[in-house]
């Protein structure tokens, strides 16, 4: 299809012609009952079988070709060739008009069916200017399509297409960006490129509808854009073609035509890459661009400075998922992350969640040999959202969302949880892609709601499982070492159930002096009585059958706890007594618990108010073999039975807010043993590591004026006050790739490997991913105990960042060979 310009007696009439590309026969000739001027652009939706025209008279029109045989023959007296034009058909000198041809077939191409565009299929003033360019984009739903148009008003519009109404276009969403005309559009996934009248290329993310980059392409109008072979090609009004890489750096330029470049395209024929251009110098040129490859050829990923640049930019996005005012920051952070994946040659998708929650960023790096070891695939899970860091009380010594390097550490919210480890993994894969050492696929699933309980994550993964495909191993890096010296591997997590208990009265808030009496059932009193029934005097949980499924600790496990305690005390003697430390680990890793977090009441916060309602939030930490469903049922039954005995006039509500299953991995499997070997190679044997080797000074670019900063020491208080992801216990065997994992936990151990630990916190996604993909998971803690994740002055040691990249690189390269 194309918009054709037809000349009839000095006037220009515009039609859209549809041709068969094999026989070159004309199939259809489309015309409008309105004088549209020039037809600047035509696009076709194969799914809807509908043609869309963008015209000089600012209209967008469409014709549903699937209905062509159901319509009556058009009235050809309304054909443009038969209509009088007040300018072109006006009488000349002497009152004589130019004679018309006897029929429009004498001038127009022959053959095919003539179709008139329905008057209801015309949007007048689609833009306040010429409609210069259009294209079809995939919508949020796989079954949707969106028409993207650019106009002389400097606006890009996104028009949803309705399959139920003959491809009609619905009310658009506008992307505003100045007054300069949008002359050309190009699409790469959901990244939209627009060429402007002023020589600028704008880069838009259609998922977030945000302008993410401005590129100065030329000092003349950008008339064409093409995306292909990992590059961006622009054609200008001066006949120059310019080539940009994925980082928007201009690589080269050449004179493609003597005058305007009006059209361009990229293609591949027999494995060779080509770029074609057409100009108004009566020339079509085909260029061999075989030097273009999708993956980066320059070893940009080998620079640790480049990694720090990316970390600084990533930290600058305030991706706080718990606060609605940062919703756009979260979307921008997700878009930036996706663009980083694309920069390194990955195929990417933005997997949208329900209820407008933050999207999941999916990326696939293709190995050079998809058949190697039956195409085994590694899935890396992480998150780009962070907890809040408002710093209103100036408790941070640095600016939370500005990366700052001080004495070998980098400070900033999310640097340790989870942006630093995530970038280390991405750069590790990029290294292997550049060096052509990535054997089989590595996938990334990076969510934006982990700090809010992974809301919507499970449904999103299940909905898009056909895109993700099969998985052989799952890897994540979302926690920390037990101290600041010894690397760890995590193979177990407690589960968690979050519950809200609310007691509510039908009365309003009352004054205790005016209305208070022993006859009044107070909501807060009832709530306190109920909460008191849940635990005993020493914290033991009183829910019926709560401990029935908890496995007894074996003598071998107790020895392991003792051995890890002694190992930690060698580096941290201020942790205290080894026996008490081991008991603390045992209680917080392999035993369940119940915690009351908050109690909130209605009404103003004054001492004389009787609140009409009161609610408490609590959580129960579960261990493997416990059933979250059974415990939730027992909790509800206990609360309702206890409330019934109060004979209160109030009402009780119990709501389970979210559940995360406990996880227990297998430290003897291939992924753990590959990680073990990589850790020893990166950090060296444990007996050779010394405190003095811990500090690696940061490069000067990110170093501030500060020389010292207060951080949490690696003491027992650090272990006790950790976040949800903080390692709390060590239980089963570890060791290196030669010695039995159990050996390293006995006194006088000599094993060089990391400590194999379990944790008291919870990560909702890990057990779900294991079950959904039927693949084992392993957890590599990247940071130290003093990283202060979720706390003020969050930090990550530079050497930990670099070593994590090295470890991931070894694992991504070697694990598919197992």
From TrEMBL:
InterPro entries: ArgE/DapE_CS, Cyt/Met_Dipeptidase, GSH_degradosome_Dug2, Peptidase_M20, Peptidase_M20_dimer, WD40/YVTN_repeat-like_dom_sf, WD40_repeat_CS, WD40_repeat_dom_sf. It comes from the Eukaryota. Keywords: Hydrolase, Metal-binding, Protease, Repeat, WD repeat. One of its GO terms (biological process) is proteolysis. PROSITE patterns: ARGE_DAPE_CPG2_1, WD_REPEATS_1, WD_REPEATS_2. It holds the Pfam family Peptidase_M20. Residues 685-704 are annotated as: Disordered. Gene3D superfamilies: 3.30.70.360, YVTN repeat-like/Quinoprotein amine dehydrogenase, Zn peptidases. WD repeats lie at residues 147-169, 188-214. Belongs to the peptidase M20A family. This is Peptidase M20 dimerisation domain-containing protein. It comes from Heterodermia speciosa. The lineage of its organism: Eukaryota, Fungi, Dikarya, Ascomycota, Pezizomycotina.
